[in-house]
């Protein structure tokens, strides 16, 4: 449990935050689940039940993955384990635009508080996904540790930041999009032949949206940087996040190109929740600015 204040800051592993930052900031992280080969796994930030290398290797071999929500009972169990210690909870949940976990957590919170009427559970919809959620939690975690704000103060900070998180993803694995039914087999064949890569972002409702496409690997870096230059606020003072799905070389190259433009750059690994839908090779850049899903 966190040592800061009278409440615990909580999020879920869809944030794709490196474990070291969760430890550093004192954040509790609930695992999200996925199914592979008829076996269920919990995805923790340290990928203790299945490494990301194994996960993406299985995806590339054609093995399907299916994500699962955090169950009502798991929320009840976790919330009660915190409340009975005398601490309250501030939970920043995976966007409701992509999952029902936010609504499930609210129902569980309402029910468990009947047993602990003197405690409080505040649940916020992050409206962010994957490394975008991680970007939000990174900024929130730093404030949580450094300033030790009250729950009310941190809620105001989260609400002021979350809609400023800009997400840009370039997908490399066309086959995974096809397997997931997001594009047709014919479209996938032409896209691969022409080296076309879908460009995704997250809109104001927290939904993952296909906003366009580009051709060729070399254009990926220029595209992501141009979006940051266009939409970012005071980027030279920012810590930005480069994220990748089994594409560390690409992430290192993007970091190298971005490094001189910003204050700090961190690399995050994309986990199974988003990885299930976009496959290996995806590259992302997340920063603070004005959300704009126009190409």
What secondary-structure arrangement, pairings included, does this model have?
Blueprint: E1 7-12, H1 19-25, E2 28-30, E3 32-36, E4 39-43, H2 52-60, E5 65-68, H3 72-83, E6 88-93, H4 101-113, E7 121-125, H5 131-147, H6 151-161, E8 165-170, H7 174-179, H8 185-193, E9 196-202, E10 208-215, H9 218-231, E11 239-244, H10 248-258, E12 264-269, H11 272-278, E13 283-288
Helix pairs in contact: 1-5, 3-4, 5-6
Q: How far is the first residue's CA from the last residue's CA?
A: 43 Å
Radius of gyration: 19 Å
- Describe the biggest sheet? 6 strands, mixed
Percent strand: 15-25%
Mean model confidence by pLDDT: 92
Q: Would you kindly provide a written description of the structure presented here, covering whatever features stand out?
A:
There is one protein chain. By secondary structure, the protein is of the alpha/beta class. It has helices at about 20-25, 50-60, 70-85, 100-115, 130-145, 150-160, 175-180, 185-195, 220-230, 250-260, 270-280; strands at about 5-10, 30, 30-35, 40-45, 65-70, 90-95, 120-125, 165-170, 195-200, 210-215, 240-245, 265-270, 285-290. The longest helix has 17 residues, at about 130-145. The radius of gyration is 19 Å and the shape is globular.
